[in-house]
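Milestone M4 deliverable, item 7.
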Amino acid sequence: PRLLELMQSYWPKYKEGSRISYLLRDHYEEIFRFYLNTLFPFRKGGLILSHPEAPTPVDFKLVYTYHYNLAEIGSVQNVMNDLKIDAKTESILKRLLIFAVSSFSPMIQQIFGRPFAFQFSNIDANSFNNGEWEVIAIISAREQ
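Output delivered:
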């Protein structure tokens, strides 16, 4: 509710012309950090948001970078083992970030009043010598 209230407080400035992407561009740090650090267990120190773009009033793009530490990777691997998920850990780490961001669509739809969806343009993962991983996702969003 707090995030919804925050976005609703910003919306009047952007409502004329339905400029939802400009709202997201102008307040991306506050909005997406709150969402990913409060509603999901992504660590503040592991998350970097960069290169916000809003080429049109209804198109938005942002680069999400998340550095998974060993404890997080271990938790993911434990769940994979418990559920007998046969997949690469890297692939699950990527999906966690993509699905967390994509799940934000209904909240935006509530503010905007129209369907809005997130789609990933590109996703990469880099492993570090210490066993940690960094996932970099370019995710676009658009009115549907």
